[in-house]
Design brief:
mainly alpha, 3-stranded antiparallel sheet, two-stranded antiparallel sheet, 15 helices, globular
């Protein structure tokens, strides 16, 4: 039976991209005719000059990063064509990015393609169109591809993997800084987790002796590329975006010196409450979590004549008493997808059962194999499954002294090691 890569050849990423782009065109079919325009208030189509010289001004100010596909589309395409194609191309690139991550984990092309399409066309992605959060779509390929670079850099520290991390992170920050900031924190935690896991499997000494130079130089290279490519973007994020959030909350900058400000600035209880409401007003009420798997149980969106939303997202503080402000404000569904949530629950249950079955935290199978066999002749079999000698597979159980039965015959020992983790 031929493997999937041999059927499609080495160009399976191209076929995946084209397939995702075709599916995205099907999703956007109603908005593609010349007389139709995708309604996306937060990212509406406009007729401002998208020429190269105008984009250079934004690049220099750090408002956008030139190192992303969306800037290329802005320059090459007319505004209305760019309006829809930006969503479509970003969706296809998200599928390609996750396929690259799964490939870095060692999966074959078929599950890589399936996983990429599943993420790109997840339900939550396609419920953001009404609000028109274009930056979210443009950010996703870079956020996901960052994990593929981390996976490759941890396994085989190469300069190109670390060098690409900086532009990748900056591209995401320039398009959706608030969400990408969370992705960066998650990426750092993931990198540490992979290092610890690799050290547990290979042995801490052997792991760090083989890679510490590459990891050290790589981290410096990633930090340098992040700073060089992202200086303007970071200045824009902290100078403009954060300042804009403060102005939304009505927080005035202190005029006193830092020392005087530290002594005199006290926020009363009402101000603390107001800030808390601002920070949590768009959080999901616990009683509406059911919409993760059952969309639009409480209506479609606020003010929709076909099905007005009647939940509590975006409700103004004290509305129940005063009826002033918003009863709610929601522009799109919050459906995550029943298959995605089901698979996440399955993973949690499987991990919990495996933990209980193992009796808590234990050394990985690779470490147990090394502890069981120290004569240098038997080695763990690549890919798991036991030990081998001279190309012949042997399990750990086969190395034990056989038990002798009542009739003098040998009783086969029971295996308790199923393979390498």
């Amino acid at each position: 039976m031929k493997r999937f890569p041999s059927v499609l050849g080495r160009f399976w990423p191209l076929w995946l991209f084209l397939a995702a782009l075709a599916l995205a065109a099907f999703v956007f079919a109603d908005a593609l005719p010349a007389m139709q325009v995708l309604i996306s208030p937060d990212g509406a189509a406009n007729y401002s000059l998208p020429g190269f010289l105008r984009r250079v001004v934004d690049w220099g100010c750090g408002q956008t990063s030139p190192l992303n596909h969306d800037e290329l589309l802005r320059i090459l395409l007319p505004p209305l064509a760019y309006h829809e194609l930006s969503y479509m191309v970003s969706t296809a690139l998200t599928a390609l990015a996750l396929a690259a991550y799964l490939r870095a984990l060692g999966l074959s092309a078929l599950p890589c393609c399936a996983g990429g399409l599943a993420l790109a066309f997840a339900g939550y992605n396609f419920t953001l169109f009404n609000a028109g959060h274009r930056g979210y779509f443009n950010m996703m390929p870079y956020a996901v591809f960052l994990f593929a670079l981390i996976e490759r850099a941890v396994r085989k520290p190469r300069a190109v993997s670390f060098l690409l991390m900086g532009p990748c992170a900056i591209s995401g920050l320039s398009m959706q800084p608030d969400v990408m900031a969370f992705f960066l924190m998650l990426a750092i935690a993931y990198a540490l987790f992979r290092v610890v896991r690799l050290a547990a499997v290979e042995g801490a000494g052997a792991c760090f002796r083989a890679r510490w130079k590459g990891w050290s130089l790589g981290v410096l290279l990633a930090a340098a590329s992040f700073g060089v490519f992202g200086f303007g973007t970071l200045e824009h994020v902290f100078g403009d975006v954060v300042a804009g959030r403060k102005s939304q909350m009505g927080i005035a900058e202190a005029k006193e010196s830092p020392a005087e400000n530290a002594e005199t600035a006290e926020i009363d209880e009402a101000e603390r409450h107001r800030r808390w409401i601002f920070a949590t007003n768009w959080s999901l009420p616990p009683d509406e979590v059911s919409e993760f798997v059952a969309p639009s149980l409480r209506g479609l969106d606020s003010g929709n004549p076909k099905g007005p939303y009647w939940g509590r997202i975006g409700r103004s503080d004290g509305w129940e008493k005063t009826h002033q402000g918003f009863a709610n404000f929601r522009q799109h569904s919050i459906y995550l997808g029943a298959p995605a949530v089901g698979l996440a629950l399955f993973a949690l249950v499987a991990a919990a059962l495996a933990f209980v079955r193992r009796g808590g935290v234990r050394a990985p199978a690779a470490a147990r194999d090394r502890a069981a066999v120290d004569d240098g002749e038997l080695r763990p079999r690549p890919g798991g499954g036991g030990l081998r000698r001279g190309g012949r597979r042997r399990s750990v159980a086969a190395l034990r002294e056989p038990e002798v039965g009542e009739d003098g015959g040998a009783v086969r020992a029971e295996e308790d090691v199923g393979g390498l983790d």
